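Listing 4. Sequential folding, example run.
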Amino acid sequence: MRQFTELFLQLDQTNKTKDKTEFLKAYFLEAPDEDKLWALALFTHKRPKRNVKTAQLREWCREVSGVAEWMFEECYHTVGDLAETISLLLPKTQIGSDQSLSAVIQLLLDMKNLSDEEKKAVIIGQWRKLNQEGRFVFNKLITGGFRVGVSQNLITQAIADAYGMEKTEIAHRIMGNWSPIHTTFQRLILSESQEDDLSRPYPFCLAHPLESEIEMLGKPEDWLIEWKWDGIRGQLIQRAGEVYIWSRGEELITDRFPELADAALSLPAGTVLDGEILPFKDGTPLPFGLLQTRIGRKNLTKKILMDAPVVFIMYDLLEWKGKDHRNLPMTQRRKILESLKSTHDLLKVSEPLHAQSWRELALHRENSRERKAEGLMVKNKKSPYEAGRKRGNWWKWKIDPLTVDGVMLYAQKGHGRRADLYTDYTLAVWKQDQLIPFTKAYSGLTDKEIREVDRFVKKHTQERFGPVRTVKPELVFEIAFEGIQESPRHKSGIALRFPRILRWRRDKKPEDANSLEDLQALLQLYGK
């Protein structure tokens, strides 16, 4: 546990990728195999299920520390992180535990069938064995809030460097439906005779945003151009008569889309497709929000399936009849993909766009929203299917976001390093002479601008509601977003997709902000 705590703190205290890679590499070379495996699981979102409620952790911390409930809440709102708040409030100790990471996680797993009193005894017992840093990481193991800027790409690079292996090989091995409970580090990473899990997907090939002029890419005929659809990127796998659907976020979502799983049975065994799960009806894409009715439900009723029909738009072929085809040129992979057009009505090949010039393609791009698309994908016809985001072969040529000017109405403190700054803002638009909240925004300002807004919030607070402050409606921000749809859950009746601050409109007064009518007009044009 000491070793993992040191690693966690090292990663949390640096923004340098090279340093993080070296810290991870050292850990994977030196730690016991069981701890390596759990560290890998923790950093790739395969965390143990929480068996203790955060409300219980708060209560037990107050009991041990003697801190009143109101004081605990004030501290929590200031610190912004529950695990850190508890570690700071508990009585100080210099004791350090010699327990391994895997032993501590096993202890947390074994709590599943314990009574609340027994859980309390275990948690407090661990707090008493650990120093402040150890408690902080222990609390993180319970709450699951592992945010230390470690991407899966960084993990694969560190392990590849540590063991002299190919990064793509590591990336493939750590994907799929594995658990530290059912495998070992040796079997998962180092074994040469490793048998592939039938469900294991391949690392996704990702595109870079196109930031230069499109003409810099050369001739249009050297590139495959297709629509960039707004759905759930996924891999559809059919091996040995079993079907698996993985999201790009490495979540197994087969049960969310049973009709796609049935359709995949019509594919030859040993087929892996990269594509987009898209809400679709009568030859037309539907709003992205319909997919959320699928993802958020444990039980899919016939009504949900009817109200949110889907198709799988096939982008690429990664495996064919059990053979890895990723290193073949796209033209060859595409030829096989085209042969699957008539396999099933729910499996549709992404149709390429044909044009004589970039100018003609730019006109297609401008009409993306009318097609319910986000822009165009531009892919080199000679390219292999690469792992991760590599510059040069795949580009996303997105349309400019929709924008609206809103007035900041509420502010709340952030988390982590920004726990003492007001960084989370609620924006409003005008409905006649009243400001109506319509979205929240958390990103887009520079550090300097955030500090300036923070000073404004503290100076112009009008009311306080717990961690939220109502402020003088004076600051105007331009909000960018990718989509808009109706939402009965919001006071404005509207929900935005991926809202963020585009810029601080210092040149505008509050009365210059947009109105709810402006948003409703955008909804009529681009919404449901």
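-- end of first protein; second protein begins --
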Amino acid sequence: MRMAWLRRACLLLGLWLLAASLPAAAAQHVPTPLLRLDTALRAHGLGSSFPTGAPATTVALPDEWARTRGGQGGPAWYRVQLPRLGSPDDDGLYAMFIEHVCSNLEVYVNGERVHSGGRMNPPYTHNCNFPQLVSLPSAMLNRDSNTVDIKVVGHALAEVGSRQRAGALSALVVGPQSELAAWHARRTALQVGAPQAVGATLVLMGGFMFVLGFMNRRESHLAYFGALSVGWALVDLRLWLRHMPLGHSETEFLLCAMLGFITWAAVQFLLRYGGARHPLVDLLLPLQCALLAVSLVLAGPQRLHAVASLWYLVLALEVLAAAAWHLHTMHHQRRVRSLWVMAVLMGVTTVAGVIEFISQWTGARPLASHIAQLVMPVVFVLVGLRLVQQHGRALNHAVHDKAVLELRVREATAEIERNFHQMAELRVEQVTERERKRIAADLHDDLGAKLLTIVHTSDSERISTLAREALEEMRLSVRGLTGRPVRLTDALGDWRAEVVSRLAQAGIEGEWEAPEDLPQTLSARAYVQTTRILREATSNIIKHSGATHCTVTASINEGDFLFIVQDNGDGIAPQTEGRLDRGHGLASMKNRAKQLNGQCLVESGPGYGTVIRLTLPLDSATQAA
């Protein structure tokens, strides 16, 4: 699974090579009825017919002008003699197949023009990549012998940037048109159709990746690879435009200058893809493009090939150095999978480049040369697919990380809101606490002092008693307002003293049962509310029960604080219970217990006494505000 992408890439590349080699391999096996012409008579002339008065030389085909004409340009005439031809095919037509001609040609049979490849005046039609199929009409053919003259126009080697664009004529193959047409179609697919398809793919993919990298500057290597792909496709623009709108010199200058921009994009892609950015390289590469253009202008059209060849070598070494640095960086970063993928693709590209360089140097056009020209853009397509796959995977990770980040932001926002509410509540509690303490201080210092004065100065026993009760109630309220918790042991002591004292004053025997040394504490509110419940219960016993004995039992059971108050009185009559509920009686006791998350149950019957059961959860009682 780790090398699955590499295997798929190699399989795809193999299929391309197989598809490219099949038509070329078929072209190497000429069927028996076909006639191959390997020699011709060559002469120089400007007219519309073979210059019979000019010096003529017998040359071998293919004829590369860079080797046989001393660097001269065209036009040049070629004459071949066709021997007696056999029986034509079913449609009665013969044809001549010309694998390579550069830059254009016209074909004459027995002095009559039968084929023209396009414009024969500068700028010539560019047919260097296009194989030619010339029909030989039966009406123009003689029974015994026929003369075929071919006028070729082209450029000297010094005037072109690539040796393969210099003037040349390949060997000629004559035979039935039906067989040569299939042969011509296969060669056209190899030399024109497949490169056009790959070039169109490079333009579309490169444009997309350039925009993608330009919009996302953190992935600038995509923009450089897009520029590299589009630039490579533009170099092969003559596959689409055989009739260039510019002159030959201008076109060759643009094609050679384009290689500087392609090298710029290739080197920057390899560096940025490896995670490096060098300011010096960013400055030198555009300066190199300008220097290349200036050197081509200074060299002039007559020395274009020499200067371009020197630049080809320099640019190729730069790309190789950047590729080596890229592989070294991936090895250092332990990116094993990417290392193997890029190493294989770069190795294939390097082999194709070496084959192309040898072809440029020697001028030969073997099968390997055509495959090499097709392999390099195919490798670019594979690298582009690899980059798109990585970008898609990174985009998926980014979307996932964004979702996780949004979730964490929402959680953090909720936490901040909770903290804010808690701080707001705490602030309110602090303000409330300060206000409670202020009110408690006012009550204690002002109202308490006045009630105490009434207790000690009043001549009326009733007024003094009421003032004392009001003072005790005020002290209890002040204690609740201060909010200080009370130890349960201390609270039980206070309650015992008050309940037993009041019962004794009323002539009722009081009995108190409670555990000692309890560690729990009660909140101020729980203490106040429980105190008022006990006072109310005690008041009811004194006023309404007619009891002579009362037992108060306090205990703790399974986290609950229990109070049981039981008397031996007459019980609560229905009419009396109603009066108590309407005032501060049983209903008040039950409501106070409910506020503390507890309950107050009253069990009574006429003649059986009364039992009051108060249950308070200790967790609520200790935390109540």
